Amino acid sequence: MAVILEEKDGILSDVAGVDRDLWHQLIVAITIGGAAVFALLSGIPTEKLGRKITILSASAIFAAGSVVMGLAGNKEILLVGRLIVGAAIGIASTVVPVYISEAAPMHLRGTLTVSYNTLVVAGQFIATLVCGAFANVDQGWRWMLGLAGVPAVLQFVGFMFMPESPRWLLSKGKEDKARDVLKYIRPANYDVDGEIRDIQENIKNDGDVGNFFQVGARVMNHQPTRRALILGCSLMVFQQISGINTIMYYSATVVQMAGIGSASSAIWITAIINGMYLLACLIGILSVERLGRKKLLLGSLAGVILSLLVIAVGFQLADMNSPSVDPADVSWSSCGSQLHSCSLCVQDGNCGYCEGPQKSFCLTINGSYSESGPCSMATQNSSYSWYPDYCPTTSVNSWTIIVGLAAYLISFAAGIAPVPWTMNSEIYPLWSRSFCTSVSTCTNWSFNLIIAMTFLFLTTGLTRYGAFYLYCGLAVLGWVIFLLFLPETQGRTLEQMESLFSGKVIVLNKKKISTF
Questions:
Q1: How confident is the model over 141-184, as pLDDT tens digits?
Q2: pLDDT in tens, 290-346
Q3: Is the dihedral of CA 259, 263, 269, 272 positive or negative?
Q4: Torsion of CA 282, 288, 289, 291, to 10 degrees
Q5: C-alpha–C-alpha distance, residues 319 and 340, integer Å
Q6: Cα torsion for 201, 205, 208, 211, to the nearest 10°?
Q7: At what angle do helices 75-103 and 51-71 cross, to 10 degrees?
Q8: Of 132, 153, 154, nearest to 143 (Cα)?
Q9: What whole-number distance in Å separates Cα of residue 41 and Cα of residue 306?
Q10: 224 has pLDDT over 60
Q11: In which band, very low, low, confident or very high, does the pLDDT at 492 lie, cut at 50, 70 and 90?
């Protein structure tokens, strides 16, 4: 999205240099920040009003935000629309996995929760196709953003016919309604009364849990739930700091950094990669109940680590072989003579690379052109090519990065994408589920925001390959932590999770080591 907003008639086409990078990241980050805040707050309506009403509200808010974005007359109004959409995303991403987990039978819980993640990826894939379709349309970015309201409206209408969560109904003493729901969503010969008894026994043991903030205090003093929350938040943290949303939000930019030409070309290549990401989600659906959550997660992270290594090496090779820069006329550019290669030139933020048949220059950026010289709007010399954000490179380097990008998304989609959401929807007891899920989801979006806001600055400070080496190292750390501390939740009912987190902490050892 941000790539298109900077092109031609985009809302950022008149912004240059550091200001362009700042607005580029703000437009992405405002949605994530809104999602983080409202994910944390969403536990209150989720618990008080129910799962269904909260999901309906999120759908309506998202549709309203899409309209604001599509009609935005300036970048400030666009930010408001992005914030509204972020609020809806934060609420929905908290409550929808909980709703699925509470309604699903035990043997299908993992598959159905992973399917939720797959459908999110399907939405991202469709959004990429929409971006590609409107990439060369006048004011096309308005259609890209405004049409996002269509699926929100469809979800609102469809969810009007969905039942409330039976576990939430029982927690509010509505046994008859819960029984009706369970009879509707369970097989004809299913022991509905037995499931109701198990849930009610769990609710009785929980006692009066108090308000949202009292629940938080109780969680901190209850060792099994505290441990579950720490691990749940850790899953969300490492899902983000392994770089996924850098890849997703800036995928077209990363493809351009690899040396692919126009924004529209980059978007279509990104669409193909995202299509592979979508297909790879089937691995998670087919494997989560066969392999279990932990094995799937560790295998996925191993693939992510290797893929990040390939991307980093690809960018490092591209920088080592970056085209050279010739001295420019001082009247053409304020970019310093120390920027002697294309990679150094475009990393400056204010400068772009102007490639010619005999000489190439580092020139000051002015919108979609250079401020002066052969790549300026006034000159538009057809024998010169303008690269404001990336450098031309060999096809070997380009495709090394793109193959690494595709391998990363496939590996990520198989496990580390769905497993944190799946486990966070099932590891908390009913009395703390709304609170803990809102905290873990807020953690996810908060680290999502950190990564989104720092990626372009990391590529400047650490270089492009340095940023991906950093993500690789963090993914290795996550792999070790989950190998040691994450228990397997496969084959347990939601009411049995507390006993699992009351056991040993280092799950590779036979004896319990410690508690936290």
A1: 788 889 999 999 999 999 999 999 999 999 999 999 999 999 99
A2: 999 999 999 999 999 999 999 999 889 888 889 999 988 888 888 877 788 998 898
A3: positive
A4: 110
A5: 12
A6: -90
A7: 160
A8: 132
A9: 37
A10: yes
A11: confident
Q: What pLDDT shows up at residue 251?
A: 62
Cα 79 from Cα 244, distance rounded (Å): 23
Tokens 């709304």 belong to which residue?
A: 434
Q: Which amino acid is at 70?
A: G
Q: Which DSSP string corresponds to 369-418?
A: EESSSTTBTTT--TT-EEESS-----HHHHHHHHHHHHHHHHHHHHTTTT
H helices within 242-378, ranges in order? 244-249, 251-257, 263-287, 293-320, 342-347
Higher pLDDT, 320 or 137: 320
Enter the tokens of residue 134: 């409107």
* 78 and 27 Cβ atoms separated by less than 8 Å: yes
Q: CA 177, 493, 216, 94 torsion: positive or negative?
A: negative
Separation in Å, CA 466 to CA 77, 267, 374, 407, 462 = 35, 24, 32, 19, 5
* 2/32 Cα distance (integer angstroms): 14
Position 256 scores a pLDDT of 64
Report which of 167, 19, 226, 108 is spatially closest to residue 490, judged by C-alpha positions: 108
Instruction: Report which of residues 381 and 416 the model is more confident about.
Output: 416
The answer to whether 384 and 355 are in contact (CB under 8 A) is yes
| Alpha carbon distance 446, 454 (integer Å) | 12
Minimal CA–CA distance to 120: which of 393, 444, 462, 494? Answer: 444
CB count within 10 Å of CB 485 equals 18
* pTM for the whole structure: 0.83
